[in-house]
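Deliverable D5.2: sample structural annotation.
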Amino acid sequence: MIREIIRYPNPILRKKCKSVKKVDPHIQILIDDMIETMHAAPGVGLAAPQVAENIRVIVVDIGEGAFAVVNPKVKKKNRVLQTFEEGCLCLPGIVGPVERPSIVTVEGLDRFSQKLVIEAEGFLATVLQHEIDHLDGIVFIDRVKDKSLIREISKKEEEEKKELL
């Protein structure tokens, strides 16, 4: 089921999310709904608070197949930084440059409660960090150092970015 995506500045997006105690059928249905919602938007990542669920669940699909991480934590990150122009489904049409570690190790659980370890670099590392930020009440514009670089993108540019997904 496609869910409504909460828009910034809704206060739900500023709350720190609670850990999932058990990956039960409710969580598995939520994961399926989040993946469907992310693909319909379209987007490459979605965090539970973006669909009004105050729990630590993210879904990601950068074109290599969708997956979920329950209770994700960045366990390691390198010191080499990379900058991507990020956008967000809760701030449609807005982008800005965000600098983040280029390689991260994320640990959590998969949709079946199995331990998951993801060694990510490049764009995947950025997407994982962006979605985990949502679980801590952080929106990407908080990470843009020079706020004058936050900009609206045109409908044409937005369509071109969607075609790349």
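Annotation notes: Residues 57 and 128 are 11 Å apart (CA to CA). The two ends are 21 Å apart (CA to CA).
The annotation will be released with the project's public dataset once the embargo ends.
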